[in-house]
TrEMBL record:
Its main location: membrane. It holds the Pfam family BPD_transp_1. Residues 55-239 form the ABC transmembrane type-1 domain. Keywords: Cell membrane, Membrane, Transmembrane, Transmembrane helix, Transport. One of its GO terms (biological process) is transmembrane transport. Signal peptide: none annotated. Belongs to the binding-protein-dependent transport system permease family. It is found in: Cell membrane. SUPFAM superfamilies: MetI-like. It is a multi-pass membrane protein. This is NitT/TauT family transport system permease protein. The chain crosses the membrane at residues 12-30, 42-59, 66-87, 93-115, 122-140, 221-243. GO terms for cellular component: plasma membrane.
Length: 248
């Protein structure tokens, strides 16, 4: 088991090195550093930014807002899916709204909502409306696919609602919820950053990225982007880990 884990980590590390090599090769062909920067300059800058208090303040601000928006969106999406499963009229009323939230471009939401909301709160709200339709559709799909034989058996033996949820619904929904989480975490992070780039809150990774564009600071642009990707990856892993522990 340990040998397999070591091999998988070595393989992942090799893949990362391969793409860094490709990056370096491309940077030799594109001589203009204002357009494309070598990893030999970006990687040291990453460590410089990791020791910068401004970066950590921006990261904490962005992460807290997106996390809050994700949690609220997950709760609302799950609640709406449950109501749609129980009541046909709710499902019919919500269908156009969910379709609308799923189809409208994120940038349209950002620009429209910015007229009514401060730049500090915008990433939270954007994350909420991006997460809701993803969680709603996954949870609802899971609910309608719960084995009816188990539900009928629970009624026959007069099983309590808590046990019905614990032993029938949660095991059936686990795969659907996990799929929804994997998709919605990344979407919440990307949409939240996009909201920051446009709204420019006082502190935020999106604001730092926008400033790189203003000052033509391509090295920091690459650095902040890579750090944002790493944080999004770790955030997703944390959310899935918490979900698996709760599901058990």
């Amino acid at each position: 088991m340990k040998t397999s884990t070591i091999k998988n980590k070595a393989k992942s590390f090799g893949v990362v090195l391969f793409w860094i090599f490709i990056w370096q090769v491309l940077s030799t062909f594109i001589s203009e550093e204002i357009l494309f920067v070598s990893p030999l300059k970006v990687i040291p800058q990453i460590f410089v930014n990791l020791s910068d208090g401004v970066f950590w303040r921006a990261l904490i601000s962005t992460l807290s807002k997106i996390s809050l928006g994700f949690i609220v969106g997950f709760v609302i999406g799950t609640a709406l899916a449950t109501l749609s499963y129980k009541f046909k009229v709710v499902r019919e009323l919500l269908y156009p709204l969910i379709l609308f939230l799923k189809s409208v471009p994120v940038v349209s939401f950002i620009i429209l909502i910015l007229f009514f909301m401060s730049s500090e709160r915008l990433p939270i709200f954007i994350s909420v409306i991006i997460v809701i339709p993803i969680i709603y559709l996954n949870v609802y799909e899971g609910l309608i696919n719960v084995d009816k034989k188990y539900l009928n058996m629970a009624k026959v033996f007069d099983v309590g609602i808590l046990k019905e949820i614990s032993y029938i619904y949660i095991p059936s929904l686990k795969g659907y919820i996990q799929s929804g989480l994997e998709l919605s975490v990344g979407m919440a992070w990307k949409s939240g950053l996009a909201a920051e780039v446009i709204a420019l809150p006082k502190y935020g990774i999106g604001t730092l990225i926008y400033n790189c564009k203003i000052y033509l600071d391509t090295v920091n642009l690459f650095s902040y982007t890579i750090l944002a990707v790493v944080v999004a990856f770790l955030f997703e892993k944390l959310v899935l880990y918490i979900f698996r522990r709760i599901a058990r």
